[in-house]
């Protein structure tokens, strides 16, 4: 089975081609350009390099969040458009689940951390049992205040392997709280990669065997939605005065 995966949940644009469980090729860009400017040219170059065509694909996979609200929408819209035109099943995975693959084979708990702004991280906690084909999710995805999450992890009294776009930025803060129990992988391993999406999408396909209706996974409301809710609440309050 040949398939394409798309991950635009962070500032990184990551596209990849997979065949069954095998990674065929991946594109990775971490620049100032927007996803909408990068994704189609990257896809064209990747298909050309692999000597594949869109018509050869059997499935489309997309990472649906949490992460950047705009990035999530761009990735899903692109994947849905391709799936509709090519009449292919669409499979989605959670960004934190995909990032857990960065720590496959490690003995420590693997904790992806994505910048959620407002002094919070999108995060979860996983563990790879020796020889396992999928990580166990020990703490489900959530948006957590940074200090609260670090104090919780400190209380577990075990080594933690951090991955994700917030890991390198928060290295000093993490090491201050966890000390030598903190393992922070370098960015070339830690940032979202097409290879991780391929592994997660293939695992998901093995579990379901069919396409699905994909919805964004935001965890919390966007700033625009919060402001709209506040205005609506104020409007209703004024109407009752």
From TrEMBL:
Report the superkingdom from the record: Bacteria
| Name listed for the protein in its UniProt record | tRNA (Adenosine(37)-N6)-threonylcarbamoyltransferase complex dimerization subunit type 1 TsaB
One Pfam family matching this protein: TsaD
NCBIfam families tied to this protein: T6A_YeaZ (TIGR03725)
State the EC number(s).
2.3.1.234
State the InterPro entries in the record: ATPase_NBD, Gcp-like_dom, T6A_TsaB
Task: Give the Gene Ontology MF terms in alphabetical order.
Answer: tRNA N(6)-L-threonylcarbamoyladenine synthase activity
Q: Start and end of every Gcp-like domain?
A: 32-228
Enzyme class (EC, first level): transferase
Q: Which UniProt keywords apply?
A: Acyltransferase, Transferase
According to its UniProt entry, this protein's organism is Desulfosporosinus nitroreducens
């Amino acid at each position: 089975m040949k398939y394409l995966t798309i991950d635009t949940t962070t500032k990184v644009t990551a596209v990849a081609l997979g065949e069954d469980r095998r990674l065929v090729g991946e594109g990775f860009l971490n620049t100032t350009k927007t996803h909408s400017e990068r994704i189609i040219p990257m896809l064209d170059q990747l298909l050309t390099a692999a000597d594949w065509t869109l018509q050869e694909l059997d499935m489309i996979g997309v990472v649906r969040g949490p992460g950047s609200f705009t990035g999530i929408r761009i990735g899903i819209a692109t994947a849905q458009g391709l799936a509709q035109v090519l009449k292919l099943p669409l499979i989605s995975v959670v960004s934190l689940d995909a990032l857990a693959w960065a720590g496959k084979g490690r003995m420590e708990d693997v904790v992806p951390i994505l910048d959620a702004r407002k002094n919070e991280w999108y995060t979860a906690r996983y563990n790879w049992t020796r020889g396992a084909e999928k990580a166990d999710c020990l703490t489900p995805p959530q948006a957590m205040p940074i200090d609260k999450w670090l104090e919780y992890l400190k209380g577990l009294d075990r080594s933690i392997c951090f991955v994700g776009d917030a890991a390198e930025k928060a290295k000093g803060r993490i090491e201050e709280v966890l000390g030598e129990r903190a393992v922070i992988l370098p960015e070339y391993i830690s940032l979202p990669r097409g290879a991780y999406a391929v592994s997660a999408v293939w695992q998901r396909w093995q579990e379901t065997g069919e396409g699905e209706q994909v919805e964004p996974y935001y965890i919390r409301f966007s700033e625009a939605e919060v402001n709209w809710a506040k205005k609506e609440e104020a409007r209703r309050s004024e109407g009752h005065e």
